[in-house]
Amino acid sequence: MFLTLASQSVPELLDYFAPQWLQDTASEGWQYVGAALVHMALLFGVFSLCPFFLIWLERKVAGRIQDRLGPTRVGGRFGWLQSLADGIKLIQKEDLCPPAADSMLFNAAPYIVCMSSFAAFIVLPFSEGWVAVAADCGLFIMLAIMSLEVFGIILAGYSSASKWSLFGGMREAAQMVSYEIPMAICALIPVVAAGSLNLGEIGDMQSGGIQNWFLFHDPFTFIAFFVYFVVATASCKRAPFDLAEAESELVGGFHTEYSGMRWSFFFMGEYASMFAVCGIASILFLGGWNTGLQGIDEILSTMRAGDNAGSYLAGVLGVGIFAAKAAIGVFIQVWLRWTVPRIRIDQVITVCLKYLVPISCFLFLGAIVWPLILHKGLGDRTTWNEPLGERVAEAIEGGRTVTTVLERDERPGQSDAHSPDHGPDADSKDEDEDSVSATQFDHSLTLYPAEEVSR
Amino acid sequence: MNGDSLFFTLFAFMACLGAVAVVVSQRMVRMAFWLIISLGSTAALFFLIDADFLGAAQLLIYVGGTLVLLVFAVMLTSSGPYLNIETSPGEIVMAAMLGLLFLFMVVSSQTGIDWNGTNQQMAAANGMTGEISTFDSGSEGNTLRTIGMSLLGLRPDRGAAETGQLHTGYLLPFEIVSVHLLVVLIGAAYLARAKRRRDT
Fold first, then answer.
1. Of the ranges A196-200, A281-285, A448-452, B141-145, which is most confident?
2. Which residue does chain A place closest to B80, by CA atoms?
3. Is B67 in contact with A7 (Cβ distance < 8 A)?
């Protein structure tokens, strides 16, 4: 309920979120501030508890993989309060700043990392319609915000005035900036399939069975998922790509000089961005909040249709499914960290620039050409899954308002020129260039309501 | 004071504060930090007027790209631990003159426009009365398709109903920019190529 900010106007929002005493006493501006503070506290609470769980999970998994037990004592049987004990220890520790450091930047750097990781969750939908800002270019905003994280790390490495930190920061800058490219390209591949950057719409399009997930949309998205996952692991600077904090060679890398809470801010940021990239993977490739079982998806979508307790329950279930998918992604990242040895920095850059970037460019091209191949070569729009145009129509009409210019005419699947499954007409290849562009222009015209276009 | 103007005041103040601090501070990397504050606040102002594509592009290109490159260059090239920039008095005088000229230009052009009259004219031209309302898909967060269509050469926000004719979009500028970027990429690859071929 706290996350249904989407598609509501501002006064309604304030009624919704600002408590009654605040509405009675404060002006509208202060109500905004109050509502913003409440949400900041909520987000901070959720995502400082989320690393608590993930750190505990990491220690237990690491213990299992290395044939140890991991934490066992704190909080009873499984050591599940270990992270809380660690947290209390971190709060009590002295907040040190080296005398040679540039103290302003040194103190500000952890907040930049933390803020950019947490702010990415503004546009990440957790269930259908459960998103703070349902922006049309949600994925773009999310990647843009997450690209700011590297800045805090570089500043931390630079301002510490320590050679370990400086080397860590430089490695980090080289690594994250170069891995941003294949990550963005890989994220674009399901976007090409979906024809939308809106994460909510992309999630909705994948309802109705596992065959509708973009992972199984075509061979290119299938490979792109694995490339994306590798790149996402690298961009979270997780092992085997954790050169920037390689403790065996760089002491601690960019956070060598940090202690206490400032140190832990880096790790809250890291775990939050791990969860964020796995959340993106789950929405783009793995169906988001859809279960992948056709019958259950239909039941859930009928439950969502109304405005009652059932739709709320379906939303909660969606959050659970989404979080479970993202958590499995995080678990695999933990698993990789404790199984695969670290690779050298030149290998990290080589893997990115010589292999991952060309692979992702090839996949991107393939994903663009794929609908054409299907249509021309096989004479079929889709191989096994439901035609995407119909799913787009469902996703857009289901509760979301679209601009009037994008309203379709009577043929729902046909008229949506954004749908990549919609290849050019069968005869357009044989004609000359002018008439090809004329046919494409004609397709674009069908975006308008038919009666408004008089040619 | 409503929420929009509250946030506008906040972010405009932060943008100006960051810009002033960039000029005042002496250390290169601190300047970069203040530039983040300034550019990030500008992006927030774009988000505030529902131009979320522009805001995200601002974050990605200027803050996530250009500034990271700047700090990276400073880290790789500086000889001492911190790179300071000393400004001579002559430079300060020159910069102040230029800055004041620019301020004069901005202020004079801002005060020279009859904003209310322009609003009413535009409203009248759009067949509305009173205050002009913005293209309303922005407030619903649906700006991206419009932008994409106009970059492909169509203007769906300019109504085709009245004239029966489609307005041309920005296909040519888009193509020019993309070819330009390609040239820049090739140039960068050429400059960064391995130059010691003889050793191997």
1. A281-285
2. A161
3. no
Residues A393-405, mean pLDDT to the nearest whole number: 47
Q: Which domain holds residue A35?
A: 1-92
Q: Are the C-beta atoms of A417 and A371 separated by less than 8 Å?
A: no
Tell me which chain A residues have a C-beta less than 8 angstroms from the C-beta of B160: 448, 452-453
Which chain B residues have a beta carbon less than 8 Å from that of A39?
none
What 3 state SS string does B3-65 have? HHHHHHHHHHHHHHHHHHHHHHCCEHHHHHHHHHHHHHHHHHHHHHCCCHHHHHHHHHHHHHH
> How many beta carbons lie within 10 A of that of residue A163, not counting itself?
11
**Residue A385 covered by a domain:** no
Q: How far apart are the C-alpha atoms of B200 and B194, rounded to whole Å?
A: 11
Q: A405, B53: Cβ pair inside 8 Å? A: no
Q: Which of residues 83-122 of B touch A (CB under 8 A)?
A: none
Mean pLDDT throughout A61-74? 82
Task: Domain count for chain A, please give it.
Answer: 3
Residue A136 pLDDT > 50, yes or no?
Answer: yes
User: Could you report the per-residue pLDDT of A10-48, keeping only the tens digit for each?
Assistant: 444 555 555 555 555 556 667 667 777 777 777 677 766
pTM for the whole thing?
Answer: 0.76
ipTM topping 0.95 = no
Q: Which residues of chain B have pLDDT under 50?
A: 129-137
Mean pLDDT of chain A: 73
Contact A99/B at CB under 8 A = no
CA distance A167 to A255: 11
C-alpha distances (whole Å) from A373 to each of A376, A379, B38, B141 are 5, 9, 48, 34
Q: Alpha helices of A256-411 — where are they, by DSSP H?
A: 260-284, 294-305, 309-337, 345-350, 357-373, 388-397
Model pLDDT for residues A352-371, shown as the tens digit of each residue: 888 888 899 999 998 888 87
Residue A85 shares a structural domain with residue A110: no
Number of domains in chain B: 1
Bridge partners (DSSP) of residue A130 are: A127
How would residue A339 be classed by pLDDT, with cut points 50, 70 and 90? confident
Our CA-based measurement puts residue B25 at a distance from the nearest CA of chain A, in whole angstroms, of 12
Tracing tokens 């927030």 back to the chain, one arrives at: B44
Contact status, residue B165 vs residue B153, Cβ threshold 8 Å: no
Domain shared by A340 and A207, yes or no = yes
